[in-house]
Design a protein that fits this description.
The protein has two helices and five strands, in the order ββααβββ. The protein is an alpha+beta fold.
Length: 93
């Protein structure tokens, strides 16, 4: 299990007490998100997961700069020193 740094977008600020990053110990992205739910509670869980437990459609999850949601998804393995970014999808027209 590695120590990873998770960067939280400002969209999550109201449920993360304004914190923009946190270090957690986890071996997968799912594990890291579960630790964050333990830290920040149900408000965080509702922002990240839909009612079926899947990541919300308009969020992206990057590990070391690579969008992993459509590759290995929540089972993406994490190593000591990895950086995880949780960001909203950006669109416009």
């Amino acid at each position: 299990m590695g120590q990873v740094k998770v960067f939280l977008s400002s969209v999550l600020a109201n449920v993360t007490r304004g914190e923009k990053s946190v270090e957690v110990s986890a071996s997968t992205l799912s594990g890291a998100l579960n630790v964050l739910v333990e830290i920040y509670g149900d408000g965080f869980k509702e922002k990240i997961f839909d009612s079926t437990g899947k990541p919300r459609r308009l969020l992206n999850f990057y590990v070391n700069g690579r969008n992993v949601l459509h590759v290995r998804g929540l089972e993406t393995e994490l190593a000591d020193g990895d950086e995880v970014f949780i960001t909203p999808t950006v669109s416009g027209g």
